[in-house]
Amino acid sequence: MAYEMIEVRTEAGKVGVITLNRPKQLNALNNQLMDELGAALKSFDADDAIGCMVITGSEKAFAAGADIAAMAKYGFADVYGGDYITRNWETIRSIRKPVIAAVSGFALGGGCELAMMCDFIIAADNAKFGQPEIKLGIIPGAGGTQRLPRALGKAKAMDMVLTGRMMDAAEAERSGLVSRVVALDKLMEEVLGAALQICEYSRLAVYAAKESVNRSYEGGLADGVMFERRMFHALFATEDQKEGMDAFVNKRKAQFRNR
Ligand code: CAA
């Protein structure tokens, strides 16, 4: 598939990097861009050489939200009946390999929601997060009202969603929305370092870890703990578990087979 609204590349033959590329619209997210993003994620997920993916934007904007110009003409029947705005937004949830959001600049509305759909966010010090939909007479429509409270707690989530204010990178890190904040010129180095580190581990353990954390994030505690327990047990059926523990006991570096 030829891409017009994203750029796709591979780093070190192992990390799939997807750059949102509508700079004039601050990477506003429309159906074509989201279709392309979904196709690129699926293609990397199906590629055995790839162990981790990164979604990033420009220095000024990760993404400034769903495309307001495209949305402006829609009525209820279009968005509910045709699901014109967010019909293809959940593709990312079907991706098994880890996806890291590398955020610099604005991550607003659907941009913040897209970053939150990734497995974790590493932010540049110029990043700004927000759910300003209230200013447009709507509410977040791609999971913002659900994922923000899980990430930030109810008080901050209500503050963000009801006032539409932006949160800077320092507040986002303090609040648990992002895992790390680095200088803008170090963002990709830091993100690729994390991605390459993940690529070194057993892919089976990486899948199990991601599925288990998501079980906690998306469901109830008892169910999540039981799911984690079963995945933990299942990994004892892999060669990588034997290798990882033997390597530790014998003070050598593990050589995982399933990478
Ligand atoms: N959709 C479409 N176009 C957008 C856009 C968006 N979400 N955000 C920015 N743009 C466009 C602007 O219209 C402008 O285009 P022109 O040059 O043709 O006028 C260009 O990008 C540059 O933007 P600004 O001139 O506004 O840049 P700025 O630096 O002054 O401000 C900003 C930056 C604060 C991000 C501002 O652009 C802004 O507030 N954007 C809208 C943010 C927003 O409301 N996002 C939520 C969208 S709704 C949503 O996402 C629903 C959902 O949950 C799925």
UniProtKB/TrEMBL annotation:
* GO BP terms, alphabetized: fatty acid beta-oxidation
EC annotation?
A: 4.2.1.17
Presence of keyword Lyase:
yes
GO function terms (MF aspect): enoyl-CoA hydratase activity
UniProt KW keywords: Fatty acid metabolism, Lipid metabolism, Lyase
Catalyses which reaction? a (3S)-3-hydroxyacyl-CoA = a (2E)-enoyl-CoA + H2O; a 4-saturated-(3S)-3-hydroxyacyl-CoA = a (3E)-enoyl-CoA + H2O
Q: What class of enzyme is it?
A: lyase
What PANTHER family does its record include? ENOYL-COA HYDRATASE, MITOCHONDRIAL, ENOYL-COA HYDRATASE-RELATED
Physiological role: Could possibly oxidize fatty acids using specific components.
Q: What's the protein here called?
A: enoyl-CoA hydratase
